[in-house]
Amino acid sequence: MIQKRREIRTYAVISRGAVTDSMGHRTQKTITAICPFCQAEVRIFVWSLHGSGKLCKCGALFQSDCQASKLVEAPPSSTAAL
Ligand SMILES: [Zn+2]
């Protein structure tokens, strides 16, 4: 059986912006972050960070405080000492 554990990494925010509607009003603040697991650029609504989080296409979950977590396969403990 493959063990899984949740790995937490810090992601980098490379820019901040906002979504504008057709009238030019800024409606929702966004950030653009680099996924620490797959290096994809991910645009995230700020409100989603404070809610359930934002899922990357690789399965990582972005949350507030610049932390992203992902379930990864834990290496067998018998090989950890090699
Ligand atoms: Zn990712």
SSE map:
Layout (H helix, E strand, L loop, with lengths): L3 E7 L1 E9 L5 E9 L6 E5 H4 L4 E2 L5 E3 L3 E7 L9
Antiparallel strand pairs: 1-7, 2-3, 3-4, 5-6, 6-7
Bound molecules: zinc ion.
What this model shows, in words?
With 82 residues, the protein is mainly β. The protein has one domain (4-75). It is built from one helix and seven strands; from the N terminus they run ββββαβββ. The strands form two sheets. A four-stranded antiparallel β-sheet has the order 1-7-6-5, with no helix packed on it. It has a three-stranded antiparallel β-sheet with strand order 2-3-4. The site of zinc ion (ZN) has 7 residues, from loops.
Low-pLDDT segments? none
Name every ligand kind in the structure.
Answer: zinc ion
- Rg over C-alpha atoms, rounded to the nearest angstrom: 16 Å
Q: What is the terminal-to-terminal distance?
A: 21 Å
DSSP strand tally: 7
Characteristic terms for this protein:
about 80 residues, mainly beta, four-stranded antiparallel β-sheet, three-stranded antiparallel β-sheet, 1 helix, elongated, binds zinc ion
Short description:
This protein is mainly beta and 82 residues long.
